[in-house]
Design goal:
seven-stranded mixed β-sheet; mainly beta; globular; single chain
Length: about 130
């Protein structure tokens, strides 16, 4: 069964940290890029971070640069999003998506349409 399952969300205060996990089954991470996207109420889903199939390329959106870091453990088929210095504007449902079109050292974060399958999401709420 192919699926992506996010976990690790929660309610934190400004300045605190969370680590999100995306557990992937039925796919080979060495052949696929993974992206983390988030969606706040009333807003479109936006890219946050991504990691390429070979893990040599990562990208983060400007609003989280220096605070968020994406990594993966291919042996465990798991992707992590470490989020530090959280702000209220980071609040939203965080989704991981998998891009099955193969590109070794690239991943896009400009559009969720470039990813093919998604998890159910995990809620992150940052209070001020």
């Amino acid at each position: 069964q192919r699926q992506l399952v996010e976990s690790g969300g929660g309610l934190v205060q400004t300045g605190e940290s969370l680590r999100l996990t995306c557990a992937v089954t039925g796919y080979t991470l060495a052949e696929s890029a993974i992206g983390w996207f988030r969606q706040a109420p009333g807003k479109e889903r936006e890219g946050v971070a991504c990691i390429s199939a070979d893990a040599l390329y990562t990208n983060t959106v400007n609003s989280v640069k220096g605070r968020f870091d994406i990594s993966k453990d291919s042996a465990k088929n798991t992707i992590f999003l470490q989020m530090n210095s959280l702000k209220p504007e980071d609040t939203g449902v965080y989704y991981c998506g998998i891009r099955t079109v193969y590109s070794a050292t690239y991943c896009p974060i400009n559009s969720p349409d470039l990813y093919d399958y998604w998890g159910q999401g995990t809620q992150v709420t940052v209070s001020s």
